[in-house]
Amino acid sequence: MAFGEFDLISTYFTQRWPNRADVELGVGDDGAILNVPEENQLVVVTDTMVSGVHFDEQTPARAIGHKIAAVNLSDLAAMGAEPAWLSLAITLPEVDHEWLTSFSHGLREICDYYDCQLVGGDTTRGPLSVTLTAHGLLPKGHALRRDGAKPGDWIYVSGTLGDAGLALACQQQRCKVSDSHYRRVLERLYFPSPRVALGQNLRDVASSAIDISDGLQADLGHILKASNVGARLDVDEIPLSMALTESVTADLAIQFALSSGDDYELCFTVPESRRGVFDTLMARHPAKPTCIGRVTSEPGKLRLERDGEPWQGPEADTESVGGYEHFR
């Protein structure tokens, strides 16, 4: 018996998924019916992952399922939103039951953890790609945005940076690391952890925020442009993992942290007047973010420093902001 589109949806994307009370009608009809709580706003984000661009045949299907959700939830985290509903569009060259089982397992795991429900989508035949739209909820008027940074604000990042970039460099045979370090950085590349709780804690504290998907230098640059400000970073303060610092030179480790994508940490700014409140909030947080610099009044200028002097790394540009862009 042929296995068609509706069999695929029923088998892999309707059974044993989280069920939220605010979903009146989910997968299985022409559209979903969702109840947005009163005094809340809806935050909507979308990401696409394409075979040969964002992942290759080495990438486990479970990791693809996890990551397509994680990158969207990271965007919601950067806005301070609570994840709620997902819709998935998947294009497949053929029905591969083993691949679909693993993919849906990875997607369902992260949905279970963050209590978000798959409520719709589409399946088609063609080159392998996945597109996911995530909807999040936010108390009205409390969104984190990119355009609120002011001169004098302190710049923070969560977690450690550069690990996913190192994993990709190893896969491309540009770097070689120990087996134990490779396992750690590969986990960061394949299974990023969106900082959802941190984003919600920052709603009334941070003046601006963004998630780090294209590299710290590029993504901080988006805040600087939107806020019409500049920044000064102390590169020695950028948090780095042991896996990174023990695998490459100090300058190259900093460069990975500045320019590698796929970290999915948060970069945000905190005014001096709210720094005490921020420290109190973070005292209960499992991993306190790291202060790496300060916002300046020079629009668009990012100054990288070490010991108070300009720092020029292996590929660093201290006057402008670059990063990965499609079509460039």
Automatic annotation (TrEMBL):
What does the record give as the function of this protein? Catalyzes the ATP-dependent phosphorylation of thiamine-monophosphate (TMP) to form thiamine-pyrophosphate (TPP), the active form of vitamin B1.
Q: Where is this region: Disordered?
A: 304-328
The answer to whether keyword Metal-binding applies is yes
**Residue sites binding substrate per the record:** 54, 262, 324
Q: Which NCBIfam families match?
A: thiL
Q: Which residues form the PurM-like C-terminal domain?
A: 150-299
Organism equals Pseudidiomarina aquimaris
Please provide the record's keywords in A-Z order: ATP-binding, Kinase, Magnesium, Metal-binding, Nucleotide-binding, Thiamine biosynthesis, Transferase
Residues annotated to bind Mg(2+) 3:
30, 75, 211
Q: Give the protein name, as stated in the record.
A: Thiamine-monophosphate kinase
